Amino acid sequence: MAAVAADLPLLAAADPRTALSRAATERGIATASGRPLEFVAADDAPPRTAYEAHIAASGRVPTRLNAHDLLNALAWLAFPRSKARLNELQSAAIARDGVGARRGGLRDAATLFDENGAVLATDDAWVVQCLRERRWRELFIDGRARWDGVRVLAFGHALMEKLASPYKAITAHVLVLPRSASTDSRELDTAVAGLLDEDFGTTALLPLPVLGIPHWWAANEDPAFYDDVFVFRTARVGSVGTPRG
Questions:
Q1: Sign of the C-alpha dihedral, residues 216, 173, 88, 50?
Q2: Based on the domain organization, do 202 and 125 belong to the same domain?
Q3: For the whole model, what pTM was predicted?
Q4: Which of these, 21, 81, 105, 181, is most buried using a 10 Å CB contact count?
């Protein structure tokens, strides 16, 4: 959880929401429409007001004092432009379509990325192609040294929560950025926000079993780690993601 590591001490404050809000104010973090961000009690939204719509209208993020919501707050601090853009897209879709049993393609993709997404930055096209085609042994064993040129940042707060108690099958939904692994985090945030538009869909996201990433989990030093076909699954016909950016 490198993206949020520097801000983790904020969660140890006597009042984490106040500490997180103060950090957001100091950094000038706001919604897409410019409303300053504040983390507030979970019951802050008026009755029958959708969560994303409330944030967009007020800048106030209802936040329970649990790991899931507090990690969401940390994600806002780490990826302010991307989170604001996701909120903008979600709230616009709600205003247009209402809140129904089905979210629709855009909201499905936005929710999936917001909850379980990761950002992968690399300028190594071979790595991206192997990932897209789920050629896991080539990617993680034959090409292991090439991961020195890859940077993966957990974006989704549900993904971060899983990584706090890791298990082998954790799979992130990755948005690939054709950027150097040394690219500044702020630039990556801006690049991600630029890819989030009305055409954003789940096909833009690639599955990645994150504990297979070299140096993320000691057990993957053994090549046999990747023999588990229930985790490292082959691609189905038509399942290969569509690159963006």
A1: negative
A2: yes
A3: 0.92
A4: 21
